Amino acid sequence: MTFSSKLIEKAVEAFASLPGIGRKTALRLVLHLLKQDKTTTEHFSNALSAMREGIRECDTCHNLSDTAQCNICADPRRDRTLVCVVENVRDLMAIEDTSQYHGLYHILGGIISPIEGIGPNDLNIETLTRRAQLGEIREAIMAISPTIEGETTIYYLTKKLDPLGILVSTIARGVSFGGDLEYADELTLGRSIVARSAYKTS
Asked: Per the domain annotation, does 103 fall within a domain?
């Protein structure tokens, strides 16, 4: 792909570095922005800069937030005895889109994977344990992708939470084994949350 402008080439390369966007799509986006008035383009770039500078992790659940506590953790209407444990922010958003769950969340930041060198200390497990020790949590729902690594993570978390008297449950297997939660349709995912079952380590 040949460019008549180095500035356009750099902009295309920037867009093409995003996941799922090839160079042709990146070029279309750049040309679209060039057709807009200057204030629109400035608003776009300012929004990205503000997001990058202002976004932080929620101190409680590790969700993305503008403040020390995300809007989910701060919502008094949420059931504070329920905590849904997920791998990442995308999974949290997928569950929220079902409108079937009204408790709190905890984002692990991944799953235990010895092959990739990811152990328990690399995840947000210690903060989950501290939340559990406060005594408010009654049930921890493991909404983790049903893979071998996911099952290993659930088993490890169950061993940590069982002694604290917390019921550990898993979402119903309407989500296929080996699949990713973020790609499950809302109806299947919603039903999986509602039809969760207690997790047995034996």
From this structure: yes
